[in-house]
Each structure stands twice: as structure tokens, then as C-alpha cells.
Amino acid sequence: MPRPPVVARTLPALRRALDDLRRRNATVALVPTMGALHDGHLSLVRLAKRRATRVVVSVFVNPTQFAPHEDFGSYPRTWKADMAKLATENVDLIWNPDVKTMYPEGFATRIGVEGPAVAGLEDRFRPHFFGGVATVVGKLFLQVRPDVAVFGSKDFQQLRVVTRMAADLDTGVKVIGAPTIRERDGLAMSSRNVYLTPEQRAVAPTLYRAMKETAKLLKAGKSAEAALAVGAKLITEAGFALDYLEARHADTLAPVRSIKDGPIRLLVAAKLGNTRLIDNVAV
Ligand code: AMP
């Protein structure tokens, strides 16, 4: 039987549990999540276990990274199933504050992020998003004081933003990027995939296929403009409303013209009905 992890819901409870964990020179890894856990999240937990002796998973659906018209209210919340999964992974501590604990009455502070946060990708479509992410991740780092924190490359721009923020604010937290876990047909795992109808689910892997095709053309020497046009056509013809398909430098997120300007990361965001999916691949 897996040992059930300790769950902390208040700051004093978190502090007590962390004091306990920190005994005997333990190192602590933090895996921030919004719950609705899938194998992608669990792969982060497994990576965290290899990088530290204790693993803390935060489960918090962060309202400050959602715009009023977005899905904060309907975001999947699957607490019981999440707990069962985290127990199986032998997580040490779950940090599950409510919104009032994270943002008490009168809360008036926000971490401003630039550089990768204004690269013209997600920020163009979700202008409030990275400020909300940086603020909650900054708070999580101060609350948990982890040695390392693990984030998925699935949210590639977010990984760059958080890495920059962790360094710029001298948090001392080492941010580790983890590979994207996919379904067998290539669709990147996401808590939002449950929104897809069976018809949309059948179409959804096109996003990954189109990026692979675009990557192949870039590797063969085609210009980014030409390769992206082919990828964009595949995506829109499958029935997506495309927000962006872009070829960017993997480190700086600056636009690139061809493979010569690389290493390249392809990044995509597109909607199927009301469901917005994002993904990315290395070229
Ligand atoms: P979320 O709960 O969606 O905010 O995601 C929590 C963490 O899991 C973030 O660091 C994500 O990048 C990561 N993540 C989400 N989906 C995947 C996936 N398919 N593979 C690997 N990591 C993922």
C-alpha cells in the first residue's frame, strides 16, 4: 500500500510539514501543478525524485493567470484521483492552499515579467497570463523554498519565463525542464484534453503531425516562412483556428529565418471549438 502523502492547506501547516521534511539534510524538489493530473505531471514528479530527496507537489488552480473569459470556473478539478496518483508516486507533501490563503483580502502585488514573457507568442493571446504565473510561482518558491523546481517543456515559453524569473530574483531555486509526455497518437497530454469531443480528439494529433512536418522541411533547408506555411495549412485544414505557428530560437525565443539561425523550437497554439491547445517541438 502506498503511504498517503501529507496534505498542507494553510501556511502554518506547510511550515510544520517542511520543517519535518528538511530534517536530516533533505533536499526538496517542488512540482507546481493545477491538479487534474495526468502522466505528464507524474513524469515531472519522477524527475523531481531523481533530483532531490523529498518531493513537494503543489495543487492550486491559480485564478490570476486566467482572464475573466477563460476557463478558471470550469477547469477540471479531480482531487481524489490526483491524491491516489500522488500516493502511488510516494510524494512526500502536497501543498493545496485555497484562493484566500494564496491571495488574502487586500492582496496587491504582482511580479512583472519581460524578456521571454513578451516574445509575442502566448503573451499575444493571453496578455495577463505570465504575470499571473510569475506571481504564483514566485509565491510558491517563497512558501516552499525548494532547492529545485520541475516544469514541463510542454509549456515552453512558461519554462523560459520561470527560469528567467528564478534567476533574476536570486531565488536560489534551480529550474529543471522536463520533456513533453504524449498520447500514443502524438497528442501532448494536457488537463484540458478532457474538453475535447470524440471528433475533436480524433483531429487533435494533427497539431503534432504538422509540427513534425514543418520541422522536416526546415531541416531540409526550406525557409521558415515556407515551412511554416505548410504547417499552418495542415492545421487549419484539419479544422483548427490557428493562433500561431512560429519558429523561434530555442534559447532567446527570437524569430528565425532558417535552420542556420537555430537551434529552433517550433511553437503552436490553436483552438478546436472552445478548447485551446498548445504544443512545441525541437527541430
Ligand atoms: P498544469 O497543471 O497544466 O499547470 O501543468 C503543471 C506542470 O506540468 C507544468 O510545468 C507543465 O508544463 C507540466 N506539463 C503539462 N503537461 C505536460 C506533458 N504532457 N508532459 C510533461 N509535462 C507537462
Please write out the topology:
Blueprint: E1 6-8, H1 11-22, E2 28-33, H2 39-51, E3 54-59, H3 79-88, E4 93-95, H4 99-102, H5 122-125, H6 129-144, E5 148-152, H7 156-168, E6 174-178, H8 198-203, H9 206-219, H10 224-237, E7 241-249, E8 264-272, E9 275-282
Parallel strand pairs: 1-4, 2-3, 2-5, 3-4, 5-6
Antiparallel strand pairs: 7-8, 8-9
Helix pairs in contact: 6-7, 9-10
Explain what you see.
The chain has helices spanning 11-22, 39-51, 79-88, 99-102, 122-125, 129-144, 156-168, 198-203, 206-219, 224-237; strands spanning 6-8, 28-33, 54-59, 93-95, 148-152, 174-178, 241-249, 264-272, 275-282. It has 283 residues and is α/β, with parallel strands linked by helices. It has two domains: 6-178, HUPs (Rossmann fold), CATH 3.40.50.620; 191-282, 2-Layer Sandwich (Pantoate--beta-alanine Ligase, Chain: A,domain 2). The strands form two sheets. Strands 1-4-3-2-5-6 form a six-stranded parallel beta sheet, sandwiched between helices. Strand 2, helix 2 and strand 3 (54-59) form a beta-alpha-beta unit. Helix 6 packs across helix 7 and helix 9 (206-219) packs antiparallel against helix 10 (224-237). Bound molecules: adenosine monophosphate. Residues 33-34, 40-41, 43-44, 151-152, 154-155, 178, 180-181, 188-191 line the site of adenosine monophosphate.
